Give the backbone structure.
Amino acid sequence: MKLSLLLACLFAIVAVTFVEASLQDEIDAALKKFCGGIALTGPTKGQTFTNPKKIKVTVTRKKNAQAKVINGVDAYSIDSKGKAKYLTTVWKGNYNLNTKATLTVDISKVKGLKFPGQFEFRVWVHNKAGPDCTLMSKVFKVKSSSHSNAVEDSEYKALSQDIDRGCFGVELTAPVLGAEVNADEAFTVEIKRDTAAHTEALTNLELYSVNLDSRESTKVQDSWTGSESISNMMNFKDTVPASAKADNVAFYYKLTANTQHEETCEFFSHPFYVNF
C-alpha cells in the first residue's frame, strides 16, 4: 500500500513537472511569435537629451500577420549604485505600429527628478490576438537644458559608463559581507536580478581570493560555466577547495552575464572568509 502511494506521488510530481515545462514551452513559442520582429531602437546607448520634455522613443516592426499597438511607456531612473526605480507611466495611448513609430515623451513632470541623470523606458506593445510584449530601452542620459553650469557638467561626466551599457540590477546576495564558510563543504551562491535589469543570461561564475595586505587577486577556479537565463533569482552550489588555503586572504565571486542588448557585464560579490 505504501509502495503504491509512493509510486502514485512520484507519477503525480513527474506529470506536474511535465505539464509546467510544456506550458512554459508554449508561452515561449507564443512570445516569440507575437513579440518577434519588434525592437526599441531609440534612445540609443548613452544618448544624451538636453530637453526633458522632448525625449524620442522609437519602436520598429518587421511586417508580419500580427497587429500591434503601442499603449504605454514607463520611465525608470537608475542611481549611481545601479539601482533602478520605477517613476511613472509617461505616455499612454493607442498607436498603431506599422513599420516604425516615434513618440515624444516628457519626463519633466516627475516630482523630485534630478538632472543630469540616467534613465530607461519600458514600452508596452499590445497584440490584438495574442500576448502583450514589453521592450526595455537602452540607458540614456538627460540634462536639465543645453545650458548647464559647472556643477551639472561635473555630475554629467561622473555618470557611469557601466550603467550606460546596461550593467546594473544584478546582485550576488550570498555569501553576505564577511560571511564564513568551511573549505570542501557546499554552500549557496545567491544571485538576484531586478525586473528592470537588462541582464538576460548568466555565462560564468569565477571564484577569486584576495590578499588583504597587497590587495592582489588570484583566480581560484571557474565555479560554473554555461548559459542560463535569469528572471528574478538563481542559486548555485559551490565549494572552496582546501588547496586554496593562504595567509590573510578573503574570497569573492565574479559573475559574467550578457544583456538583451548584447553587452557583456561583470558583477562582484562581497568578500567572505573560509575556514580551513
